[in-house]
Description:
Structural class of chain B: alpha/beta
Structural class of chain A: alpha+beta
Largest sheet of chain A: 6 strands, antiparallel
Helix content of chain B: 25-40%
Number of helices of chain A: 6
Number of strands of chain A: 10
Strand order of the largest sheet of chain B: 6-5-4-7-10
Strand content of chain A: 25-35%
Oligomer: heterodimer
Strand content of chain B: 5-15%
Largest interface: A-B, 38 and 34 residues
Order of helices and strands of chain B: HEEHEHHEHEHHEHHHHEEEHEHEEEHHHE
Largest sheet of chain B: 5 strands, parallel
Distance between the termini of chain B: 36 Å
Radius of gyration of chain A: 16 Å
Radius of gyration of chain B: 21 Å
Number of strands of chain B: 14
Shape of chain B: globular
Amino acid sequence: MLSYSIQNSNNLSSKLEELLANDLEYIKSHSNTNYSWGNCTGNLSSKFRQYDELDLLPVFSDLLSYGFDIASVILSTLKPNSTKIIQNSNYLGELTNASIIIPIGFNQTASYIWYSPSYITRDNIRSLSILRKEHGNKIIDDTCIVEKEKPLLVKHQNYWAAVSNQRDSDFNFLQISLSNNPEYEEVKNYLGMYSGNNPGTGPKS
Amino acid sequence: MDQNLITHPYLSKDKFGFYQVDNFKSYSKVEAIEAARRINKPNNVHWNFNDYDFANYNWKIEPPENIKQLYQRRARQIRERYDYIVLWWSGGADSYTMLRAFVDEGLFVDELATFHNHGGDGDWDTYLNSEVKRSAMPTAEKILENSPNTKFRLVDLSELNPDVYDKDDNRFDFLYKANAVFSPNQLSRTRYIREKEKDYLDLFTQGKKVCFVWGMDKPRITQVDGKYAMLFVDILDNCVNPETQRLDRAWENDEFFYWSPDACDLLCKQGHLVKNYLKNVPQQDIDAGWLTTNSNVLGGTKINGKMYYLTNNGLHRLIYPDWDTNTYSSGKHEFLLMWSPRDDWFLKDEHSEHRKIYTNGLEKLKELAGPEWTNMKGIMHGLVRSRSPSYFLE
């Protein structure tokens, strides 16, 4: 499965920890029954679409400068030893091609999980525990590590994926999707080109 | 519906926008956020800014008139509606162009009014006052030299502000009398001047149709799916307070010169001027101060793989042909919406009662707004701005 670790993110995780400290505190102390999957989530899309403030943030400012637009930003916090299902579809219900996972704060790692489209479909996610019992690890196609200060661009193959926190402390992260649903390769090429660690085909005019 | 509003829909206070949470309607953004949070849908606040009128206008067709003709047409429309018009005048590009439209069309302006706080600052060289002294006053005098009967009013905010939290339960609910600009001077500027100034009260008593005209605002241009579109953002309480909308007093009228459902041709023309420029930016403009790589919603375009956005001057040059981009400006202040330098004199005493009311109010606002609506840089930078739908120019 394809993912791309965005280098030279200039302490983005730490900057987000500072910027979102109050938000995380709020989310942890105010339960939202709309998101009752055991962990807390907040949709911060609007605040991350105030263009004139995103220049503060590495990666975000890069995305804007290449002409990408932020479609949604979801803030999540995972309790220790828990897994959170994440949705990879836009408001029209279409599969998004790629998203960016950004860990927030110090010493954070977790696993990103690709579910197999052969077993987990758009419609059967609510039966996940049954499917797991029935098919075991076959429901998982692949995993990779999400590390602090290494935002991860992920190519999607399924409407559902997951982030699993096997540590004994909370794992906080942002999940970003982009407007116009650009292809994984397109986003990777731009970010790779300008972060200097993985030259791609370069920007198109 | 009020018969008067059917005959004269421009009198409706809804035209200054309102917030909707399903079937609930409020002029207060804070009240709407509270309502949305109660049903566990904190993001489910829709800002309705003339949605119906704007959605039914064809933004894709560029009006054939030139932009000055459209400004002048708008000036005439306003002049013919009201008996006495007050132009709020900062001397900046928006209000300058508005005033020029009246003058060029040969229309009488009853009054130009400018805010300052010299009584509080005790100085004409502060953030607000320097712009008044160096730009607003001399420019007004020059433009109006042929209109000696136009009244030029200087309004000292420091005379209006001191008891702002002693009035009308403001100490408890001033958060519901702002949507973007929560600083104390906003309440004075948008509400109490018209309740305190004897000239206005006399005109109201005489039954005169008085209108306060605001230079709200320059266009916001975005790209959606590669196509240029216009949108609006909820910063309107800087001119019309939600309390003004709630009170709905027939004798208090306001007009936004630009952002009005009665000015669609003007707005559309502005949008096309910006779009046409951005689709074909001259090479020599790139490093000439008209464009920046700092993202904003004044309009952007990709050049050689990088996004460039219009600067304020870059935009003014396109849509305000008579504006001198070298005119003195104090610049935009980062805390303008919440803790404006205009309020420094009022808030500087950290032990004062009104400062405590204000800072406690902001703490309360942070709790009510929650993460979804608190600005990324914190509550001192205000609430997350709401946006209108995008109206496609192509």
